[in-house]
Amino acid sequence: MSCEPNQCGCTSQGLQPTRREFLAALGTAALATSLPVMAGPFDAACEDDGPIPLDKKLHPDWVRSLTERGEPTVYRGWDQLKHIGMPVGGIGCGTVYLGGDGRLWCWDIFNEHHEGCVPNLTTPPEGPGRVRERDGSNYVKPTDDQSSPWAIEQGFVLTLDGKPRPLDRRGFDDIAFKGQYPVATVNYKDGGYPLEVELEAFTPLIPLHADRSSYPAAVMRFTLINHGNSAVKASLSGYIENCAIRQNKPAAQGLQRRFNVTGDDTSRRLTGLVEPRPKQGDKEKPKEDIVFAEFEGQDWGAWNAEGRAFEGGPFHRNQLKPVQPSSGFTGDKFVNTYNTRVAKEGENPDVLTGTLTSPAFKITRKFVNVAIAGGDKPDSAFVEVVIDGKTVGRVTGHGDNQLRIKSIDVSAFAGKQATVRIVDRETGSWGQIAVDQVVFSDRPAPFAGAYDALPD
Fold this sequence. Notes:
Elements: H1 19-32, H2 60-65, E1 74-76, H3 78-81, E2 85-88, E3 95-99, E4 104-108, H4 137-140, E5 154-160, E6 163-166, E7 174-180, E8 183-189, E9 195-202, E10 219-226, E11 234-240, H5 249-252, E12 255-263, E13 268-276, E14 290-293, E15 304-306, E16 315-316, E17 333-336, E18 354-357, E19 361-362, E20 367-374, E21 381-387, E22 390-395, E23 400-409, E24 417-424, E25 433-441
Antiparallel strand pairs: 1-7, 2-3, 3-4, 5-6, 5-11, 7-8, 8-9, 9-10, 12-13, 14-25, 15-18, 16-17, 17-25, 18-24, 19-24, 20-23, 20-25, 21-22, 21-24
């Protein structure tokens, strides 16, 4: 066939190489650099079946190299092991990573919407409250089993002659990791130690069978090898944190955790539960609540205000702009550092900063309960209790404008003098905090909802 101008990307002006010239040049370059030629040569300038031919003329040596068995890579030393995370746990049922030293980490099983072991919480230009997660930040600065927020306490322990030794980098000096997905092998040795331990970990994976590859299970099989001259008595045990309602801490206040164990010696099921604490007797009857601050006055009263964020005194709900649709008030006024009253024309109130400090008080109740909203900025926008110049507890907003009651536990500081500080030093997105009633109570903040229906 003839090749018409621009029919397949070539030109009749000679300004760009034709397809024939490009492929010829590619072959010449491959020969010049001793690179393997994977496909071709292609003789026709254009193909009837489009720019990518059906017959790619793959070189048989290159095709054969795809199925040749090689030697698996073995990783040793913490510098190599610390960023290893091979996913186990089944397709579409959450992710658990097997770490380089055999511990399980990045337990992404809490029905949280995010991507990566340490979600990148930067705010994109589209607006506040949204998260851009596909920016490669977990590869530029990879996490490990300690920096992931989903690194729960879990592990296995080998006990020999009454002496326990954790099966991770804390217990063994020589650890080797070999990953051949979906199976990984972790080998534990130590100089002078008679036992060698081999862990084979995998998730059930049946190619082309989605159902059988979607079991929410990680299989961990341990083999103990005795290199000594005499028999030894050893045992292997495992432990795991009860992480029910781990991501919804306000819901867990006032509840107790326990495990429910079912099954027999051959198969046991361990279920982490939370449940209401037993009712307290008359001797521990909670004292009456004390309303410490309502912010209903014309000014801050005995509270000391610094910074533009707190200019003008308490904020009236009628002064709210449509951009800040708040709710959950008690009364008409509250603290609001998104202070549209004093922001200049064109100025984003998020940039306003300041502090509001209460008069000193004596701790006579177990909790300081605060109705709070605004940004989730634990380092730059928060409410804290300060004793002797040190922060003993802190709460933040949750990325929206609805006031919710949160608690600071001060039960360990009974009789001490303290102050409450409302701080906003955040100038970026969600650089704001809203606070209503501050109440001293023997009861933690109630959770608005059924805790047993929470996703985690």
